[in-house]
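Chapter review: from sequence to fold.
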Amino acid sequence: MSGKKNFLKSMFTDCKTGDVSSKRVIGFIGFISLLTIMFINALYSKSVAPSRELIDAIQYIVIATIVGTSAEKFVKDKGNDGPTI
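The token string follows.
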């Protein structure tokens, strides 16, 4: 049980600072929301389905958080000059 808890904690924390990353949490919540919407749409008729605009908005939020989290790994720290060539 402790291994799963540590895995979840490491999944949401920033590797540089060790703080919880809001982008990762928002992306995960959006991903779970999309999975729930797809599951509900598969079971029920179209009258229960949410609007297409709502689904698109959640998709864009999830994509933006994934791209933002990935881009952080390649952006140079302001406090670290890094090697000079």
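Two observations follow directly from the output. The chain has a mean pLDDT of 79. The longest helix spans residues 22-43.
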